[in-house]
Amino acid sequence: MRARQKRFFALFVTLAHIAGALTSVQAVMETRTAQGAIAWAVSLNTIPIAAVPAYWAFGRTKFQGYVKKRQEKIDETNPLVRHFIDLAREEQFLVSNRTRETPLLERLTNLPATVGNDVQLLRNGEEIFPSIFRGMEKAEDYLLVQFYIVRDDNLGRELQARLLAAAQRGVRVKFLYDEIGSYQLPRSYLDTLRESGVQVSAFNSTQGRANPFQINFRNHRKIVVVDGRHAWVGGANVGDEYLGLHPRLTPWVDAMVKVTGPAVQALQVPFLEDWFWASGEMLDLDWTPRAAPNGTSRTVFILPTGPADRFETCALYFLHSINSASHRLWIASPYFVPDEQIVSALQLAALRGVDVRILVPEDCDNRLVRLSGWSYVAALEKAGVKVYRYTNGFLHHKTMLLDNETSAVGTANFDNRSFRLNFEITLEVQDEEFAREVEEMLLQNFSESRLSSAQELEQRSFPFRLAVRVARLLAPIQ
Question: Which stretches make up the PLD phosphodiesterase domain (predicted)?
Answer without folding.
Answer: 215-242, 391-418
